[in-house]
Structure prediction request, 240 residues.
Amino acid sequence: MTSPRPAYSRVLLKLSGEALMGSQGFGIDGATVERIAGEVAGLRELGIETALVIGGGNIYRGLTGAGRGTDRVAGDHMGMLATVINSLALQDALEKREIQTRVLSAIEMRALAEPFIRRRAIRHLEKGRVVIMAAGTGNPYFTTDSAAALRAMEVKAEVLLKATRVDGIYSADPEKFPDATRYERVTYQEVLEKRLKVMDSTAISLCMDNNLPIIVFNLARPGNIRRVVLGEKVGSIVEA
Prediction:
């Protein structure tokens, strides 16, 4: 029996910080991290070079802090540190599965992670290591969605996989509006014009300018990551 042939050889998976919370309202749920690590390990078993960017909203969100009086730049730096915590948690879960992993941080912290250097990141991917890119872009006012789009292009990923709590792109939040329309395919321009909540406009514009497809899918359904990379019709796709 022949092994399934992946549709992609190098991908970047974007996870929100909230994805690590599980059913909790805050922090990191160990069982959820273990499940995600298992799915990422499955990508390596398929021979797919895998990079990840994780948000920090389960611990701290800079924009929320700014609304409560925290200086925006300070708040964004705090959010970047939260992404490092999440990255280390996923690294630990992956390495318990004997998956070689490297955390590369946009903010230098050599005791915990390597500094992000594009060529080094690509070399790690070529050697079969899972690369987790932390601390966003290292700059305030940029979301981890923008960081994911930027890093995907820097490491020459073939697709950006956006893992969410819903099964694709909708005209409105389906958790609040049950009659929202679901799109199987949408263009970058439509996302911007209709203000669809896929990723922020900076991230969408980066992907549009560089023709990088985005697949939005439900992370909560076990096996979805594998289905996406095998080319099954899962979730929604944003392309030209």
